[in-house]
Specification:
single chain; about 325 residues; Phosphoribosyl-aminoimidazole Synthetase, Chain A, domain 2; thiamine biosynthesis; alpha+beta; nucleotide-binding; 10 strands; 60s Ribosomal Protein L30, Chain: A; six-stranded mixed β-sheet; ThiL-like
């Protein structure tokens, strides 16, 4: 049975708010930032067939829609505060809305972020979320602070989401348990919010990995006006990806996208503080390279010592209008 616009909002997207001064139901929500904090705001749009497969379970889609936005807050070192949801639906049906809202709001509760408003309309399945967080003044992690000599670090593992996509495309095959694990990475990414906050005052720059390692590192390089060297052998990967042919491994690791891990830089003197941040947040962190002067550009070596740099021309990051 199809629901009307306001019925579906009241039934599925009207959780009570505790931290916001005023949630949904009026023309605007009202947020009160903590004194001494700055607001961090980010928006992401997910379009069926572009950002997710039509076969994804609604509860997983709800989870991922919020997770990719929380990942932006994590990259800024911000604490989640509130979010809005804009939802375009072909049909307003409980069979989709009930699990979608359950997945969305379960992750919201896990990170203590409140749904405070939004909009719904009929149309192609499209999900737009805007998140609001707060970060102590002057401590936000930015893309522009990397310096030559800094180490390059990454959280978690890389490439599993892209590997899952290649299985769906029929370009790779995995046994059931291994496929379940990489599909989880693709459909239920875990935003590294706690790590981002633990890196405040430690990392010199940060970004979340949504468009591929090389593509997202290029954003740091441009904003910081630096070059970078990475070592392919150090890139953290799952056993499933490690068993794949070398060419597929490199594609998934360097240009895979949808990892939603944190890529960040820090001076070598902060290495113990970085590892402590990883332990405190329960997140593995791996040193994968170093920041160089801008003239060096971008280099990836197969080994830490004694190899020639890879030809990177085939590893383009994701671009919504080119990919």
């Amino acid at each position: 049975m199809a629901l009307g616009e306001f019925d579906l909002i009241d039934k599925y997207f009207r959780p009570p708010v505790r931290r916001a001064a005023l949630g949904g139901g009026d023309d605007c929500a009202l947020l009160v930032p903590t004194p001494g904090m700055q607001l961090a705001v980010s928006t992401d749009l997910l379009v069926e067939g572009r950002h997710f497969l039509s076969t994804v379970a609604p509860d997983r889609l709800g989870h991922k829609a919020l997770a990719v936005n929380l990942s932006d807050l994590a990259a800024c070192g911000a604490e989640p505060l509130a979010f809005t949801l804009s939802l375009s639906l072909p049909r307003a049906e409980a069979a989709f809305l009930a699990p979608f809202s359950a997945g969305l709001l379960a992750l919201a509760e896990q990170h203590d972020i409140e749904l405070v408003g939004g909009d719904t309309t009929a149309g192609p399945l499209t999900i737009g979320i805007t998140v609001f967080g707060e970060v102590p003044e002057g401590l936000a992690l930015l893309r522009s602070g990397a310096m030559p000599g800094d180490d390059v670090w990454v959280s978690g593992c890389l490439g599993d989401a892209r590997l899952a996509l290649e299985v769906f495309r029929g370009h790779a095959a995995l046994p059931g348990e291994a496929f379940t694990a990489v599909r989880e990475a693709m459909e239920r990414p875990q935003p590294r919010v706690a790590l981002g906050q633990a890196l405040r005052g430690v990392a010199t720059s940060a970004i979340d990995l949504s468009d591929g390692l090389l593509g997202d590192l290029a954003h740091i390089r441009r904003r910081s006006r630096v070059g970078a060297t990475l070592w392919l052998e150090t890139l953290p990967r799952s056993a499933a990806l490690d068993a794949m042919p070398e060419a597929l491994q490199r594609e998934c690791l360097l240009a895979g996208g949808d990892d939603y891990e944190l890529l960040f830089t820090a001076p070598p003197s902060a290495a113990e503080a970085v590892r402590a941040a990883g332990l405190a947040s329960g997140t593995p962190v791996t040193r994968i390279g170093c920041i160089e002067p801008a003239a060096i550009g971008m280099r990836v070596f197969c080994e830490t010592h004694g190899s020639e740099p890879l030809d990177l021309s085939a590893y383009a990051g994701f671009d919504h209008f080119k990919s």
